[in-house]
Every structure is written in C-alpha cells, then in structure tokens.
C-alpha cells in the first residue's frame, strides 16, 4: 500500500514532471472562444501564450469536476493505495470543492484533501514538500496535518506588467486596479490567506525586480531547508536571467540552481505575459 498524490495544473507542474515524480495531474479547462483545452495536456504553455497574444478577450478557466476526481480516486483506492489531493486555493477556484465532493464517497482514511491556499509555485513547493514527507515514510494522516500547518508559512509574490488581466478576470476590483495602475509602474502582488493583494509597485523592469525582492524579504526570512521556486509567464526566460542579480541575492545561490518554471494557462490567464513569481517557505 502506498500514498498517491493527486495535484492540479494550477501548480505549474508539467505533465512530464508529474509522470517523472509519480504524481497524478488533474488539468483545469481553458477555453478560447469555442475551443476547450486541458491545461498543459491538450495545449502547451507555448501555444497558450501564442493564443493569449492573438485574442482580444481573455480565455475562460474552469475547475476540475468532481467526476474527473472520482475517476482518479477510484483507480487509486481500488489498488489499495491512499490518495492525498492537493489543490489550488479554494478562494480562487472551485477545484478544491470538487475534490472534497469526490472524496466524500470514500472512507476518510483513504482519501484526504489539502487546500494549499496557494497557486503556481506557491502550490508547487507544498507538493514538493509532500513528496519529501512520503519519502520519509510518514502516514497519510500525519502528512496532511504537517501540510496544513506548513502551508501557512508559504510566501508567494508576483511581479506583473499590469493589472488589466486580473481585473478582466474578476480577480481584482476596478478600484484596486486603478490604485495599482500607473504608466511604467509594475504592480507586485502577494497571496495572503488565499486572497490576491497589491503588496507594492516598482517603476521599470530592473528597479521593479529589486523592489520585488525587497518586498519578499519583508514577508519573512526564507527557510532554505524547504523547497523554493521561481516562475515566469510568456515565452522569454530572459526576463528572469536579465535580472538574475536581484533573485540570486534573495535565494543566495546562482540563478541556474534556483528552480524555474513557466507559468501555465490557469495562472497565465490572469497574470498576463511578462510576470515573475517567487515562492518560498518563511521561517516561523
């Protein structure tokens, strides 16, 4: 009997990575006009950003359904294994609710649901920690208790080009958007208790990256014994490498040694092109 982690595509873990790590990946749905795609499975990140630039209207995102979760849970439980489902923040999507509905059909000691209260690399580092706990041989219930405590220490900050996509997608109010939007100003967002807040802003890319780092430091001292990760949106990683000095200072290691991934469709819809995200656990 083993423990199987079931995750969603909002973690920005690719299908190839999921297969390599032994994770069951549940894709959210992305819709451009009348075409539906499974995030990361039937639309690549490269193709998503190509279409995002080509369309005037933002795509729509849809949660994983209870039925889709049930299909995977049934397979896990039928093999005698235990499932731990880690979802993106319940405040941002109904995916967690779908997982809970599906899990209610199974014994409590066979299926567990963890609301990460995060997204993108914030969700990803909680998943990576869960994998470490499984390797340590802990029981599922103990792992879930630890995850529910450790998720409170996750800090996630995004540097974005503008707030337009977040406003159009209903993630920020018009007042919040107006307050954070000025010519040449790049807003910096944080996720606090699952809610997107404007943490600060910078002017110009290079200065904004340094402001991004300084704000991250204020959110807490990094626990380097835990996973750390960065991500960017779009098809050009130079936005990170051209500003590597700032992020190397934050994470105290060369940029090549910092985990780096591309923000996928679910988060990219709202963050837009040219965003940079940092995710880490803060010390108590």
What does this structure look like?
The protein has 12 helices and 13 strands. Helices cover 39% and strands 24% of the residues. It has helices at residues 15-21, 45-54, 66-78, 95-103, 120-135, 140-150, 164-168, 174-180, 205-218, 238-241, 244-251, 265-271; strands at 3-8, 24-26, 29-32, 35-38, 60-62, 82-87, 111-115, 154-159, 185-192, 195-203, 229-232, 260-262, 276-281. β9 (185-192) and β10 form a beta hairpin. The chain is globular and about 55 Å long. Pfam families: DegV. It comes from Peptostreptococcus anaerobius 653-L.
Quick take:
Keywords: Lipid-binding. It contains twelve helices and 13 strands.
**SSE topology string:** EHEEEHEHEHEHHEHHEEHEHHEHE
In the CATH hierarchy, the third-tier topology of the largest domain is known as Rossmann fold
Rg of Cα set: 18 Å
The first-level CATH class of the largest domain is given as Alpha Beta
Known CATH architecture of the largest domain: 3-Layer(aba) Sandwich
Task: Furnish the topology, listing elements before pairings.
Blueprint: E1 3-8, H1 15-21, E2 24-26, E3 29-32, E4 35-38, H2 45-54, E5 60-62, H3 66-78, E6 82-87, H4 95-103, E7 111-115, H5 120-135, H6 140-150, E8 154-159, H7 164-168, H8 174-180, E9 185-192, E10 195-203, H9 205-218, E11 229-232, H10 238-241, H11 244-251, E12 260-262, H12 265-271, E13 276-281
Parallel strand pairs: 1-2, 1-6, 6-7, 11-12
Antiparallel strand pairs: 3-4, 3-5, 8-9, 8-13, 9-10, 11-13
Helix pairs in contact: 3-4, 5-6, 9-11
GO molecular function, one term: lipid binding
Organism: Peptostreptococcus anaerobius 653-L
InterPro entries: DegV, DegV_C, DegV_domain_contain
